[in-house]
């Protein structure tokens, strides 16, 4: 859609030149004769807060949602497939009055002005629609609007915000006299597609109490009880001209005497007081933290938790606290990384929509959260960031220059639509991106040697399995290097190409492109042969010495011999914990479940060694870390190791779709690893309704309670027995073998 569809003949307006902080306040007027319905379409770049007669109508949001804005910042040598801007729409009827009304926009910052990708001067546009008895009147932004600088005096989206109230007059309500302000100037319109979306925006989720835990070298240290995203609300008691500084960190020193600055990530909130006793909070950025130090005369009231307003769609509980913690903590970590319409790698250091992390965790997220609209919007971002010349998929969507590699990152163009289809049953998402998928396969072929994917775009990273642990293999005389990745990147990249081709064969059949199936199967076989020839040792049946999940990669795409899987089982049974990076952790866990070795999969998930989920839990973590080794992690808020949570539902509870089906309309309920637990219960919200499974052991029997929503076909399989399930509640007792 075009600008005029949303904004009629409104003009983009702003200041004549960029200021240090880039923030401005724009004021305009509109008349209302009869209060029927008044609507507002509005944009302020990069973020905006909108006030109608002094009332903020979008507090604690970061609007508009993230996008690629326009073509001015495409990566060198590439032409991205699309550029769009998402238009927030509001019903402002409750905020208007008969007569003169004032709209005020405080705007600037965000990715739009960030040094990584500066698009242009901050600017704004709006259209107020007033429905009268027989017509609709429109009031739009133009050069009659007044504009002045805002109170945000210095700013970096990912690290800090400074607010200066020294010479600030509150100017958002209708009584403020703006006649001394300059007129706004017309700005160049965005060359972009204007869109509406139902993707949930950021919102205030909860308010956390805070606890004073000590006095640091400069100020008072507080704890909000969990690693989270958002900001504290401060009562400023400082005299005019005095500075208040808040420093954030994810951890404190062991003795509690100071913040651990290695996990502060440069995050600060600064306020210059006007002596009027204000209550303030950051307005145009959030922080990732648990602890914060307040330096100066200010008292924090509480912490606002801010992230995308995505509801839970699942439950899980069992008699093992490690798994309970892992489930709950993944959800919390994931939500902390859902901001402005895309999933991020971390909520502080980078905040980018990495396609690697995002495609990896997509199945788990859609299993536990009601995130369909969120991921459909992000999928559009991924499609937009494909190079029309080569088919290259960027490492982040929306595009911000970052690191990654082929396969594990770019395969998001196939994996995310595939998971959306599997979870919700709408094959239109597959048709929409099918040509994008084909172009990406062409890209991988163009970056291959001897049928192995060996490179990515010139000058960029070509990573394999990122973030493996710092581990010694004394029996193999191996020590992981600085990047902790022992697996050759071409093996990992080519695995993802094979896996992607196999899914494209399935997708082609689903959408009626059967003529393409043979092509994909042939390509997959050629690439599989290349992996086998380059990395398989026929002497012992191992790939890459069977370390860091190498054999799991192979088994997952049908490679190796009868020893390959058994070697993997023996190795991890002896090791007892994960030695894997982000991709292999997921692949290894799933392969074990698929092969019926749920016992070993659960042992790895529950291990109480020096690394893993239990290691994090015992050390007080409230979010997943970037590395298994907490002491080495840059970030203590990374969701990527959460991909196996999908298998809590698919295998432990046994809520599995029948082969060849989608949308959870046809199920096989087949719980695994019940010998490990005395009880387990969980549920998933599906497109047809809630599916729930629970079991408890009573003496020599195990009691199952299974609820199937109306219209869903289901069978129950356990201990080589199969039972038909009815819609509604099913109760089944099974005698345990002794």
- Give the helix proportion (percent range): 10-25%
Task: Quote the average pLDDT.
Answer: 94
Query: How many distinct helices?
Result: 14
Unreliable stretches (pLDDT < 50, length at least 5) are 479-483
Give the C-alpha Rg.
Answer: 27 Å
Class from secondary-structure proportions:
alpha+beta
Largest sheet: 10 strands, mixed
Tell me the fraction of residues in β-strands, as a range.
25-35%
Overall shape: globular
Distance between the termini: 67 Å
Number of E strands = 41
What does this structure look like?
The chain has 738 residues and is α+β, with helices and mostly antiparallel strands. The protein contains 14 helices and 41 strands. The strands form eleven sheets. Strands 12, 13, 17, 18, 19, 20, 21, 22, 23 and 24 form a ten-stranded mixed sheet that branches. The chain has a six-stranded antiparallel sheet with strand order 5-4-8-2-11-14, with no helix packed on it.
In short:
With 738 residues, the protein is of the alpha+beta class.
């Amino acid at each position: 859609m075009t600008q005029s569809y949303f904004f009629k003949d409104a003009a983009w307006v702003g200041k004549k030149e960029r200021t240090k902080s880039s923030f401005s306040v724009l004021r305009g007027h509109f008349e209302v004769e009869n209060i029927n319905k008044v609507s507002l379409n509005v944009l302020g770049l990069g973020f905006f807060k909108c006030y109608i007669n002094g009332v903020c109508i979008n507090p604690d949001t970061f609007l508009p949602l993230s996008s690629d804005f326009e073509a001015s910042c495409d990566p060198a040598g590439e032409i991205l497939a699309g550029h769009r801007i998402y238009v927030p729409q509001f019903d402002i009827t409750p905020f208007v009055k008969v007569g003169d009304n004032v709209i005020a926009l405080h705007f600037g910052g965000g990715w739009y002005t960030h040094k990584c990708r500066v698009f242009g001067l901050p600017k704004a546009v709006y259209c107020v629609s007033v429905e009268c008895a027989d017509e609709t009147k429109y009031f739009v932004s133009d050069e009659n609007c007044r504009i002045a600088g805002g109170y945000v005096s210095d700013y970096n989206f990912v690290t800090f915000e400074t607010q200066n109230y020294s010479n600030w007059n509150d100017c958002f309500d209708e009584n403020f006299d703006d006649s001394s302000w300059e007129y706004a100037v017309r700005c160049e319109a965005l060359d972009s597609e204007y869109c509406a979306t139902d993707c949930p925006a950021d919102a205030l989720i909860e308010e956390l109490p805070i606890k004073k835990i000590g006095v640091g070298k400069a100020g008072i240290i507080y704890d909000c009880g969990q690693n989270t995203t958002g900001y504290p609300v401060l009562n400023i008691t400082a005299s005019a001209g005095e500075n208040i500084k808040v420093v954030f960190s994810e951890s404190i020193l062991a003795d509690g005497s100071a913040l651990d600055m290695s996990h502060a990530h440069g995050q600060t909130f600064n306020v210059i007081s006007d002596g009027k006793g204000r209550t303030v909070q950051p307005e145009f950025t959030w922080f990732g933290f648990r602890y914060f130090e307040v330096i100066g005369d200010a008292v924090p009231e509480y912490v606002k938790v801010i992230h995308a307003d995505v509801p839970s769609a699942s439950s899980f509980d069992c008699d093992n606290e490690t798994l309970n913690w892992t489930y709950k903590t993944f959800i919390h970590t994931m939500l902390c990384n859902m901001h402005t319409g895309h999933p991020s790698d971390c909520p502080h250091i980078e905040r980018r929509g990495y396609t690697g992390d995002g495609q990896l965790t997509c199945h788990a997220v859609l299993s536990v959260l009601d995130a369909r609209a969120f991921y459909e919007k992000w999928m559009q971002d991924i499609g937009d960031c494909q190079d029309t010349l080569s088919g290259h998929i960027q490492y982040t969507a929306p595009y911000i220059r970052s690191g990654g590699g082929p396969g594990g990152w770019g395969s998001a163009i196939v994996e995310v639509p595939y998971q959306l289809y599997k979870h919700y049953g709408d094959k239109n998402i597959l048709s929409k991106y099918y040509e994008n998928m084909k172009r990406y396969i062409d890209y991988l072929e163009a970056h291959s040697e001897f049928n192995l994917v060996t490179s990515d775009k010139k000058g960029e990273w070509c990573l394999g399995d990122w973030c493996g642990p710092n581990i010694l293999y004394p029996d193999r005389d191996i020590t992981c290097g600085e990047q902790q990745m022992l697996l050759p990147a071409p093996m990992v990249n080519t695995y993802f190409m094979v896996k992607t081709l196999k899914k494209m064969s399935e997708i082609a059949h689903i959408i009626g492109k059967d003529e393409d199936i043979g092509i994909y199967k042939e390509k997959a076989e050629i690439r599989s042969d290349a992996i086998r020839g380059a990395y398989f040792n026929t002497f012992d049946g191992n790939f890459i010495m069977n370390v860091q999940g190498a054999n799991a990669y192979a088994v997952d795409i049908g490679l190796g011999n009868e020893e390959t899987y058994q070697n993997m089982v023996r190795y991890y049974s002896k090791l007892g914990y994960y030695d894997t990076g982000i991709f292999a952790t997921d692949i290894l866990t799933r392969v074990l479940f698929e092969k019926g070795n749920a016992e070993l999969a659960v042992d790895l998930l529950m291990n109480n060694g020096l690394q893993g989920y239990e290691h994090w839990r015992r050390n007080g973590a409230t979010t997943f870390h970037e590395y298994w080794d907490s002491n080495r992690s840059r970030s203590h808020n990374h969701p990527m190791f959460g991909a196996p949570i999908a298998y809590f539902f698919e295998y432990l509870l046994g809520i599995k779709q029948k082969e060849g089906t989608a949308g959870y309309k046809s199920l096989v309920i087949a719980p695994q690893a019940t010998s490990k637990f005395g009880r387990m219960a969980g549920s998933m919200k599906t497109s047809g309704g809630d599916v729930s499974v629970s079991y408890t052991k009573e003496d020599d029997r195990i009691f199952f309670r299974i609820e199937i929503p109306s219209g869903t076909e289901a069978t129950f399989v356990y201990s080589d027995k199969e039972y038909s399930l009815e819609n509604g509640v099913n109760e089944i007792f099974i005698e345990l073998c002794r």
